[in-house]
Design brief:
Layout (H helix, E strand, L loop, with lengths): L25 H23 L9 H10 L3 H8 L7 H14 L3 H26 L2 H13 L1 H7 L5 H20 L3 H17 L6 H16 L7 H8 L4 H15 L6 H13 L2 H12 L6 H25 L12 H11 L4 H21 L22 H8 L13
Helix pairs in contact: 1-5, 1-6, 1-7, 3-4, 5-6, 5-7, 5-8, 6-16, 6-17, 8-9, 8-10, 9-11, 10-15, 13-14, 13-15, 14-16, 14-17, 15-16
InterPro entries: LipidA_mod_glycosyltrf_83, RgtA/B/C-like
Protein name: Mannosyltransferase
Keywords: Cell membrane, Glycosyltransferase, Membrane, Transferase, Transmembrane, Transmembrane helix
Length: 407
C-alpha cells in the first residue's frame, strides 16, 4: 500500500496497490492477510470460550420464542412487537432448524459474526492506514470485553456490527475506485444493516461526512453517487423502521430515565471495562497521522453513534444502550492504534495492559447469571425488558407470541 501524503489535509492515497505478477513472499502474505485473520481468529475464540455457560437472558428467551414459530407467525407477530428484529428472527428460525435451538447454537452466529467483524476492522485499518495499525486495532477490538459479551448474545447486535463494519470498508474501497458493482455491494450491506438493527444505521452519518470530506478535497462528481445509492438501500428496511418507531415507546417505557447516569457510564459500558476503556479512548484521542482528514473521518464515525443515542436519551427518553453503538468500536480502536504507529514495544505493552485490565470483566460476563442482569454501571448485559413485561405491555392476547412459553 502506498504511504499517505506528508501534508495534513491531503486526500487518502489509493487503497488498492498495483497488482503483482510475481509470487508473494511469506512476509508479504502475512502483511496482507494477518490484519484480518489474526483478529478474526482471536475474537471468535474469545467468543466461544464459555459460550454455553451464561443462562439465557430475557432478550435471548424472546429470540428462542420467536425462532420456534413459523415464518408466517413471526411476520404476523412483528406487526405487534419487535418489528425491527423480524429479519433476525427469520434468519434464526432457519438456523435453528439446521443446528437446533440450544442456547449455545443460537449464540454461535453472533460469535462468528463478531469475529468476522473484528477481522474486517483490521482489514479496514490495513487499507486506509498500514498493516501494522490494522493488526493492532483488530487485536484491541478482539480483546475488549464488550466484543466477547455481545458475541455471546443470541440477538442481532453482532450481525449488525459485522454488516456496518463491512459497509464502512466497502465505502472506502468504493471512494478509492468507484465501480458500479462496488456501489451495489455497499448498498446491499447498508440494507442488511438496517434490516438487522436500525440503530446500526447511525454509521451513515459518518459515511456522509466521509463523502463530503473527500469531495471538499477532490471535487470528484462520482462521489455523489453515495446519495442515491444510500436512499435506495434504505427502501427495504423503511417499513420495519416505521413500524419499529411506533413500537418504540412501549418497548422501552419500562426502563428508568437516567440520562446523566447513561452519559457518565457510556465509555465504560461501551468498551466493557472502565480501566481498559479509558486506556483505549485516551490512545484514540492521541491519534496521529499525516492525513488529518482521515483521522477526522474516523473521529466522526466513532463519536456520532454514542452521542446521538445519549442525546436522544436526554431529549426523548431512554434510548442509549451500549450494544446499539457497537460499530463505533471500530474507528475508536483504529484511532488508538494510529496513536501507537511505529512504537512496536509500546503497542505490545498497550495490548497486554488492555488484556490485564479486562480480565475481571471477561470472567464476569461468563458467569451463569451474567445475561440475567441488565446494563447498569459496570455491568454489560442485555438491555431488553423481561419477556413477560413485553407480552403484557405490547402484545394482544391473540398474538402468537403472547401465548408462547418463554424458556
Amino acid at each position: 500500500m502506498l504511504s499517505p501524503a506528508a501534508f495534513d489535509d491531503s486526500p487518502t492515497r489509493p487503497l488498492a496497490a498495483p497488482r503483482r505478477t510475481t509470487r508473494r513472499r511469506p512476509l508479504a502474505l502475512v502483511r496482507a492477510w494477518g490484519p484480518f485473520l489474526i483478529p478474526a481468529t482471536l475474537a471468535t475464540a474469545a467468543g466461544l470460550i464459555g459460550l454455553a455457560v451464561p443462562v439465557a437472558g430475557p432478550g435471548e428467551q424472546l429470540t428462542r420464542v420467536f425462532t420456534g414459530l413459523t415464518p408466517e407467525r413471526i411476520l404476523d407477530s412483528a406487526r405487534e412487537a419487535d418489528a425491527v428484529n423480524a429479519v433476525y428472527y427469520l434468519l434464526m428460525h432457519f438456523w435453528a432448524e439446521l443446528a437446533g435451538d440450544d442456547v449455545s447454537m443460537l449464540r454461535l452466529p453472533s460469535a462468528i459474526a463478531m469475529g468476522l467483524g473484528a477481522g474486517l476492522a483490521g482489514e479496514l485499518g490495513r487499507r486506509i492506514l498500514t498493516p501494522g495499525i490494522g493488526l493492532c486495532a483488530g487485536l484491541m477490538l478482539a480483546v475488549l470485553p464488550a466484543v466477547s459479551r455481545w458475541a455471546q448474545e443470541a440477538r442481532p447486535y453482532a450481525l449488525a456490527f459485522l454488516c456496518a463494519t463491512a459497509a464502512t470498508l466497502m465505502l472506502y474501497r468504493t471512494l478509492d475506485q468507484p465501480r458500479w458493482w462496488r456501489w451495489t455491494g455497499y448498498g446491499l450491506l447498508i440494507t442488511l444493516t438496517g434490516l438487522l438493527h436500525v440503530t446500526a444505521l447511525l454509521v451513515l452519518a459518518g459515511h456522509a461526512y466521509t463523502v463530503f470530506s473527500r469531495w471538499v478535497l477532490s471535487r470528484q462528481p462520482a462521489l455523489f453517487w453515495w446519495f442515491p445509492v444510500t436512499v435506495l438501500s434504505l427502501v427495504p428496511p423503511a417499513p420495519l423502521i416505521s413500524l419499529g418507531v411506533r413500537q418504540h415507546a412501549a418497548l422501552l417505557a419500562w426502563r428508568p430515565h437516567l440520562a446523566w447516569e447513561a452519559a457518565r457510564s457510556a465509555p465504560e459500558v461501551l468498551l466493557g471495562s472502565a480501566a481498559a476503556g479509558l486506556l483505549v479512548i485516551g490512545l484514540a484521542l492521541a491519534a496521529r497521522w499525516p492525513d488529518r482528514a482521515l483521522i477526522r473521518e474516523l473521529a466522526v464515525l466513532a463519536a456520532v453513534p454514542p452521542l446521538v443515542l445519549i442525546g436522544a436519551t436526554f431529549l426523548s427518553g431512554p434510548v442509549w444502550a451500549p450494544q446499539y453503538a457497537l460499530p463505533a468500536l471500530v474507528p475508536i480502536t483504529l484511532c488508538a492504534a494510529a496513536a501507537l504507529r511505529g512504537l512496536k514495544l509500546r503497542a505490545l505493552l498497550a495490548l497486554l495492559a488492555i488484556v490485564a485490565l479486562s480480565l475481571p470483566q471477561h470472567r464476569a460476563i461468563r458467569e451463569p447469571g451474567a445475561h440475567q442482569r441488565f446494563a447498569s454501571g459496570t455491568t454489560i448485559t442485555a438491555s431488553v425488558p423481561p419477556p413477560e413485561r413485553l407480552r403484557s405491555s405490547m402484545l394482544p392476547r391473540s398474538s402468537p407470541v403472547a401465548s408462547a412459553r418463554t424458556i
